[in-house]
Amino acid sequence: MSETATQRLTADPEGIARAAELLRDGQLVAFPTETVYGLGGNALDDRAVAGIFEAKGRPSFNPLIVHLADLDAVKELVQWSDLADVAAQVFWPGPLTMVLPIREGAKVSKLVSAGLDSLAVRMPASPVARTLLRECGCPVAAPSANRSGRISPTRAEHVLETLDGRIAAVLDGGPCDVGLESTILGLTGKPTLLRPGRVTAEFLSEALGRPVMERRDRDQISAPGQLASHYAPNARVRLNASEWHEGEARLGFGRTEGDCDLNLSPAGDLVEAAANLFEYLHRLDSSGAEVIAVMPVPHVGLGVAINDRLSRAAAPRG
Ligand code: TXA
Ligand code: MG
Asked: Is there an atom of ligand 1 within 6 Å of 38 CB?
């Protein structure tokens, strides 16, 4: 999180170049898309992505949408398919997000997909967003640029109302055209509308030549990440461990008495801990241990989201 005032950049070549430089550098920059303003961070950078959650004050790690400038960049991150290709030809660049299986070895931060094996990708149409994405040369993770629980911003002023002082810059490109978040099309199985938007289910069905199912469970639409089972490691997770038991994989936080296998943040920094969380859970899980014991993480700031995720990982399996 930046402690200083947020720079307001005009969306001219100079301002866009500066915004691109900040993003490459791991800083947070709000930028206009045709739907709403996004709160952007370098999707390859764990700390930048953790910073997005901190700036938003989100109490949980919802998976984020990755914004890209061109199809080649998209195909490096997700498993492309014929259906995705048709949708891209008709609707990209534009207000459509596709959820596809993530590619093995894709370099995006695990925090972006909140540990899921799918990834949401979108190629925005706004010329300012496109230029910015081309210039920064990295995939950009961006939820709507508002504090958690507030309405999505369609002007730079809206962004500053809730995020001034919490992000490095806002790129002011004037009001957004659509004013409603992108449609989300799930393509990990049968085509499914995960979030309605400007691109309707009818448009999609027609373009794809097959029905697009509408998700009925509203809670799952807004928060697929809320399903405990999405995050369950194979190992059992033991929370608030104050001592280690024989044979457990040991996940520490802050200063530890004795050894742990991995430490989320030896310095007790919650942003660092969030950045490491999914990666470390994966690593300890693949060590084959039956139990992963986790030291307590303070329940403040980003710690709330970290504990939310840890308690889902520890929840009994249904
Ligand atoms: O128009 C938009 O899409 C804006 C602009 C900035 O691009 N972004 C946006 O992001 O609305 P956000 O974070 O507010 O919404 C992301 C949505 C969430 O509902 C999330 O659950 C869903 O995308 N999502 C992301 N990754 C997913 C995945 N792997 N599977 C299912 N849903 C996913
Ligand atoms: Mg939002």
From this structure: yes
> Which pTM value belongs to this model?
0.88
Ligand 1 atom with minimal separation from the 224 CA: 21
Query: Cβ distance 23 to 141 under 8 Å?
Result: no
Q: Is the CB of 144 under 6 A from ligand 1?
A: yes
CA–centroid distance, residue 135 to ligand 1 (Å): 23
pLDDT band at 148 (very low <50, low <70, confident <90, very high): confident
Whole-number average pLDDT of the chain? 91
Residue 117, both tokens: 């094996």
Q: Rg of the chain's alpha carbons, rounded to an integer?
A: 20
Q: Whose CA is nearest to atom 15 of ligand 1?
A: 143
Strands 236-238 and 140-141: unpaired
Backbone torsions φ then ψ of 262, nearest 5 degrees: -140, 150
pLDDT per residue as tens digits for the range 155-198: 999 999 999 999 999 999 999 988 889 999 999 999 999 998 88
